[in-house]
Every structure is written in C-alpha cells, then in structure tokens.
Design a protein that fits this description.
four-stranded mixed sheet; alpha+beta; 6 helices
C-alpha cells in the first residue's frame, strides 16, 4: 500500500554527487505518489510566497511536457501540508509570459502587460474636466491622438507609470462627449473668427470665405458653444457625484501605480528565489 506523502514522513537526502532525492519513510518517492500531492499556487497574486519551497521536480504530470521549458513543478510546504505547484518561469505580465488559459492553451503576453484601474479611469475624466475649465492643458483622448494606443487598446488613453509599463485609462462617455463637443466648438469659433477677419489672400481660402455666410457661421458657433457647455455640465455632475476631488484622484492613481510596480517586482524576486532551488529526484 502506497503511503501518503506528508511533511512528517518526507525527507530530502543528498547523495555523494549532490543529488537530492525526495523520500517517504526512507524510500524514494515515486511518480504516482508525487501526483497525489494537491496542486496549489505557490506564488500569490501579490507576488508573495504562500509557503516554503523545497525544490523542483523534473517531471511534468497532466500532459504538460510539451511546455516544460516555460514552467517548473515545485514541491512546497504550507504548515503541515506538502503540496506541488506549477510555476511559470516568466511572470504573466512580462513579454513571453502567460496571461490566461483559453481554448486549451495559455495566451502569451507579447509586450509588458498594461495596468488599469477604476481610479485611473476617473483620473482621465477629471483631467478632461480640468482642461475644459481652463485649469490644465488638453488631455489627449483616443479619438484625437490615435498613434498613442496599441490596436488592442484603441479606446484607451495612456499614462506613463515610470516603471516600465503603461497605465491604461478609459474615458467615460460623459468625458468623451464633453471633449468632442469642446473641439467642435473650437473649430466653429475659429471659422467664425476667420470670416470676421476679412477675405484671406490665399485663393482657396478666399473661395471658402465667399461661400460661407457670416450669419450661418455665427449660428453654428453659438450652437456648438451651447452644446459644449451642456456636455461640460454633465461631466461636472459625474465628477461631483464621486465625492472625490481631482487632486485626491491623482494621489490615489499614484499610489496604485507604485503598488503595482512593487507587486510586479515581488513576482520577479520570487522567481529568482525559486530558480535557486535544488532539483528533487523521484523514482519512476
């Protein structure tokens, strides 16, 4: 009868050539016994280790051998319990890392994975409001600066984290509408001002100047300005409803980015620690 592998009866012995074997009651652990260990994550979401790692086993259960160079199987201890864990060699936010399991395979991250949060989304909307109120420069939005976004994040704006990853922010519908109506108002006012300035010297501009009526441009400008003010008021109401001022949003965003940078570094440090573990040899 096969004995159960526990922290009480399991030991690691070292042979003359520094080969470490995993044994149970003095006998080398077999593949069948190793497979009986419950699989639990060794590295937590925050990058901390959930227990004490013993070593890695060069054996790949669950038909994962084709992917053996991308991960390792580690025996680790949590309290009195001995467990095993599959650990990807590269964190899932790094290029080449694995983000999620889909259709029978892991999807690889081709670039450093961006970070986003609700507070960052709110910060973007608040930044738009600051610009509309004349307190800051215009905050770039996806519709106005498309070259800044990757194709998979075309509806997001970006912030530089300062830690090697970008921070994505998705503007609310109210922020987008307020920014777009303000832009339309600026265009209409510019056209009105050009008409009022008199006939331009450029022939092409002159033809356009003759075709447009001053009265029609005035109506367009007045309507666009009214729409922009109404859209701005909707955004003001949205931001006010949060009950948080923009300075606080900016501080919360900064703290979140720093926390995310620290989390990612803990994941890297954990894998550096695990890379130093010995191999545990088990019997066939």
């Amino acid at each position: 009868m096969t004995k159960q592998l526990t922290t009480q009866n399991a030991t690691i012995t070292t042979a003359a050539v520094e080969v470490k074997t995993l044994t149970i009651s003095g006998k080398q652990v077999t593949l069948a016994v190793f497979r009986q260990l419950r699989e639990q994550p060794l590295i937590a979401q925050d990058g901390a280790l959930n227990g004490e790692p013993w070593g890695f086993v060069n054996y790949h259960p669950d038909k994962c051998g084709d992917d053996r160079f991308a991960h390792v199987h580690i025996v680790w201890q949590r309290g009195p319990e001995l467990l095993r864990a599959r650990v990807d060699r590269i964190p899932n936010f790094e290029p080449g890392g694995r983000r999620r399991y889909q259709n029978g395979q892991y999807l690889k991250v081709e670039a450093v994975e961006p970070f986003r949060s609700r507070d960052t989304d709110r910060l973007l909307a608040g930044s738009v409001l600051e610009w509309l109120c004349g307190e800051a420069e215009k905050c770039p939005l996806p519709q106005k600066d498309a070259n800044r976004w990757k194709a998979q994040h075309e509806d997001h704006a970006t912030f530089d984290s300062g830690h090697g990853f970008i921070v994505l922010a998705k503007a609310s519908a109210a922020a987008l509408e307020a920014a777009n109506t303000r832009t339309r108002a600026d265009v209409a006012l510019a056209a009105l001002a050009k008409k009022q300035a008199g006939r331009p010297a450029d022939p092409g501009e002159a033809m356009r100047w003759e075709w447009q009526s001053l009265e029609g441009l005035q109506v367009e400008a007045d309507t666009a300005v009214a729409d922009a003010r109404a859209a701005r008021d909707v955004l003001i109401a949205e931001v006010t409803e949060w009950g948080v001022d923009i300075a606080s949003l900016r501080e919360a965003h900064s703290q979140l980015v720093e926390a995310e940078a620290a989390r990612r570094e803990r994941h890297r440090a954990a894998r550096r620690t695990l890379a130093e573990l010995p191999q545990l040899f088990i019997a066939v």
